[in-house]
Amino acid sequence: MKEKILEVKNLSFSYKDQKVLSDLSFDVYKGDYFGILGPNGSGKTTLLKLCLGLISSKEGKIKIFGENIKDTAQKNKISYISQKSNAFNVSFPATVQELIYSSLRSVGYDSKSSKKMTSDAIELVGIGHIADRRIGNLSGGQQQKAFIAKAISSKPEIIFLDEPTVGIDYGSEGFFYEAMHMLNQKGVTICMISHDISAITSYANRVACIGEDTFHIHESNDIMDIETSLKKIYGKKMRLVTH
Amino acid sequence: MLEYAFMQRALIGGLLVSIIAPFMGTFIVVRRMSLIGDSLSHVALSGIVLAALFGIEPIYGAVVITVIAAYFIFFLRENYASYEEISLAIIMSSGIALASVLMGFSKNIRGNFLSYLFGSITGISNQDIYIMIALSIIIFAFWGVNYYKLFHMAFDEESAKAMGIKTDKLGKIFIILIALCVVVSMRIVGVLLISSMMVIPVAAAMQYSLSFKQTIISSIIIAVISVIGGITLSFYFDLASGGTIVLISVIILIASILLKGRR
After folding, report:
1. Structural domain harbouring B159
2. Looking at the complex, does the CB of residue B97 fall below 8 Å from at least one CB of chain A?
């Protein structure tokens, strides 16, 4: 039986009087590449933030690693690359190396381990040549590689990503999806929101399609099934091109 | 000049300010909260007047009122989550308004009040120095434990929170520490100029520093040069210490911008 990493039960969420999510239930298993598709305003980011404990809901339960998301002491097994990372403070005065090292220290790793984990992550992503450069002086693609290195440096068991390829070029985008695929092959669970339907259907093994009144989990990345769900959500046929 | 006890006190206080203010300031600037020092320092004014009315040391009044104002900022930020600067504007004007009303009850504070507005090296008492040292120890102890958490939070608050850092609690303590930093600095640079000691050395250091640590160390060096230079000039030429310190730091800022442009 597959190990559940994330359990969502009867989750609802409203912003003031506006219902955003209604009675969602699903699980994410260890080793899943879980893609979340849906139009703007369908509640994808809200769902991800709830799963990360960044916001909370009074209705429903979310467990991660078998513990309530609010109370778990295992958050150091989680990494998050937010939508915002693509538009972070460009003048932030820190080098790539410093950024990764400090993030590790912030979640409790000692100096020696943090140095080793930082250099491992930098080597794995292949950004040794920009490790001593200020993060704000890098191109969008280089910044995204730095964020990948930061996200994987703590050797997380699950990585949440919210539209991680917005604003980066085609080559960097390809690198990004390959890097996530490689991590997933090594057993890291990926939970990714994207507008890139073809990327999700190419890499994810399970796909959630979320619309205003619809939430459907596809237990495979079968293009025909996903197309049918998306047609209901978007109100028109979506043409999927395989990556 | 060091044979005078008041100058010794001024230098000790000045060195504390030149280490703490830019250190806090680096985090304030990268979190885009540059106005917070101004807001809290204006509130400190009302604490000074209130303390004078009750006949207690002004610095105690400033500590109590600025910490209360820090809590009020949390309250306002929750109510105006999308417009955080509103809370700072409200606190700043409320502080000035309260100070001006309270001044009406105490006619004899006005002369002394100017020294709090613009800083005065002769006005620092032994008790001021003891309190400044105690507050500085509290600030350093907090930073010693939480430096990396605050760094992560300053860079990407959501990612830090997702990885288990208690960002809400840390953010609140951070604002209370800014309030304490304002109190530590107010005798040296004056309440109207405290914010500049938190921002200008950092702005100058950011021109050429590559890393975060370099930015902190460079901004402290700039602040130390400004404070020692400012206190020395104000002693020999009878100038307002706060204004002189800030003007020196502005000259360094302009020089670093020009030097960067020539590279």
Report:
1. 5-261
2. no
A216 min Cα distance to partner chain B (Å): 26
Q: Looking at the 3D structure of chain B, how many domains does it have?
A: 1
Is A78–B151 a contact, with Cβ atoms under 8 angstroms apart?
Answer: no
A166 touches chain B (CB under 8 A): no
Nearest to B151 by CA among B165, B135, B137: B165
Q: Does B156 lie at the interface with A, CB-CB under 8 angstroms?
A: yes
- Whether A68 and chain B come into contact, CB under 8 Å, resolves to no
- How far apart are the C-alpha atoms of B90 and B208, rounded to whole Å? 35
CATH number, domain of B182, equals: 1.10.3470.10
Residues of A with Cβ-Cβ distance to B26 under 8 angstroms: 93
CB contact under 8 A, B210 and A93: yes
Residue among A9, A80, A37, A21 nearest A204 (CA): A37
Q: Which residue of A has its CA nearest to B151?
A: A102
Whole-model pTM? 0.85
3-state per-residue secondary structure call for A135-160 = HHHCCHHHHHHHHHHHHHHCCCCEEE
Asked whether A25 and A11 are in contact (CB, 8 A), the reply is yes
**Chain B contacts of A106, Cβ < 8 Å?**
148-149, 151-153, 160, 163, 165
Q: What was the ipTM of the complex prediction?
A: 0.84
Reduce the DSSP state of residue A210 to 3 states and report it: strand
Amino acid at B229: G
Q: Note whether B152 contacts A106, CB cutoff 8 Å.
A: yes
| Surface-to-core class of residue A3, CB atoms within 10 Å of its CB (0-12 exposed, 13-18 middle, 19+ buried) | exposed
Alpha carbons B191 and B198: distance in angstroms, whole number: 12
Tens of pLDDT, residue by residue, chain B (263 residues): 777 888 888 888 889 889 999 999 999 888 888 888 888 888 988 998 888 888 888 888 888 999 899 888 888 877 877 777 788 889 889 988 998 888 888 766 666 777 788 777 777 888 888 888 888 899 899 989 999 999 999 988 888 998 889 998 998 899 888 888 888 888 778 888 888 889 999 999 998 888 999 999 999 999 999 999 998 998 899 888 888 999 999 999 999 999 876 65
Q: How far is B25 from chain A (nearest CA, A)?
A: 13
Which of the residues B79, B146, B148 would you substitute to probe the A interface, choosing the one with the greatest number of A C-beta atoms within 10 Å? B148
User: Tokens standing for B129?
Assistant: 């120095």
Residue B70, CA distances (Å) to A235, B41, B84, B180, B181 in order: 50, 11, 13, 10, 12
